[in-house]
Amino acid sequence: MFVSAITVAILSKAIHEPFPSTCAYPIEIVHYNDFEQFIHAKARLYIDCAFEPDPNRIAALQSLLPEPVLINAVDYAAGPNEKGVIRFNGWPGFGYKPVLELAGNGEELPESLLQFAMACGLTCIQVPDKIGLVRPRVVSMIINEAYFTLAEGVSTRHEIDTAMKLGTNYPFGPFEWGEKIGLQRIVRLLVKLAETDSKYQPAPNLLNASQLP
Fold first, then answer.
1. Fewer Cβ in 10 A, N or C end of the chain?
2. 135-210: CATH topology
3. What is the pairing mode between strands 86-88 and 99-103?
4. What are phi and psi of 86, to 5 degrees?
5. Per CATH, which fold does 6-126 belong to?
6. What is the Rg, in whole angstroms, of the alpha carbon atoms belonging to the chain?
7. Per residue in 8-43, pLDDT tens?
8. In the chain, which ranges are continuous DSSP H helix?
9. Which distant-in-sequence residues (6+ apart) come within 8 Å of 144 by Cβ?
10. Each residue's pLDDT tens digit, 45-73
């Protein structure tokens, strides 16, 4: 039986880690680096890997509904008037497993998204719509604790990275992972989480290393 192709529009400054440059039929991926061209694309699924929480951008993305819209928004949760889009974990450093972490839909995942994921070899996992999702929140805390440990003189960066990789079978040590993700991303998430729970307070050395106030 012939199945018509499904066009997926992806906005990114580069080929983004969670998604391949091409997919098996019937998925046709079109990459964009211009937002205006992206929102005017004729697609069955839109993925904004370069999302910024700007009201105008959010309104433009919502105008694409009811077609599914995914946004790379780990440290952002939609307000009461910004429903409809699906957040995903698109942080660098998480592409080693074929898992797409999703939040914010609250319903069954759209068929076009499931077909896209299947064609790309991705498994979709829905998590509660909380800032930080699951894996980014956990890894950020591990990285934060590593900076506290380093400041206390317990061990060196290299020894901490090695111990975590050998002891937990993680793909990267916490300092390696921090460099891949970007320390500014980690600090922004921890600062937001610390607004309601002090255990997420960033380590002073991590703040200094991120060059954020």
1. N
2. N-(1-d-carboxylethyl)-l-norvaline Dehydrogenase; domain 2 (1.10.1040)
3. antiparallel
4. -115, 125
5. Rossmann fold (3.40.50)
6. 18
7. 999 987 656 678 778 887 899 999 999 999 999 999
8. 35-39, 55-62, 111-120, 135-151, 157-168, 174-181, 183-194, 204-210
9. 186, 190, 200, 202, 203, 206
10. 999 999 998 989 999 999 999 999 999 99
